[in-house]
Amino acid sequence: MKVTVSIDVPSIDEGLTFFGDVFGFIETSRPHPGYARLTLGDETIGLLAKPAGSSPAPGSDDLRRYERHWTPVHIDFRVDDFEATLARAVAKGARPEQVHRVSGFPPVAFCSDPFGHGFCIVGTNTL
């Protein structure tokens, strides 16, 4: 089995810029004009172009919004160069909400991307 996480973004181009420039993902296919598959090594994510204010499901009272919002599911990006990745993320519009650098543990940053989704950057090495 292979699992792919898909992320709603206001436009494919905005998503490509963030996830490509920060983490190095490249677009490997666009099976639909509103969906792009991005790959980095063996990892794949999908980007779904969904406009702000659109309904996430028929009959839902909720609407898509791209300011910071809470969701019980998020992605952890495990990276070799924690500091450089965090700096790139911030430069591309991410907000670090909590950053932990504790001796004996890998560093971790709880962040939100420019689309309001929570994610974590986790170093692969202990401090």
Automatic annotation (TrEMBL):
PROSITE patterns: VOC (PS51819). It comes from the Bacteria. InterPro entries: Glyas_Bleomycin-R_OHBP_Dase, Glyoxalase_6, MMCE/EMCE_epimerase, VOC_core. Keywords: Metal-binding. Residues 1-124 form the VOC domain. The keyword Transcription does not apply. SUPFAM superfamilies: Glyoxalase/Bleomycin resistance protein/Dihydroxybiphenyl dioxygenase. The keyword Metal-binding applies. This is VOC family protein. It comes from Methylobacterium longum.
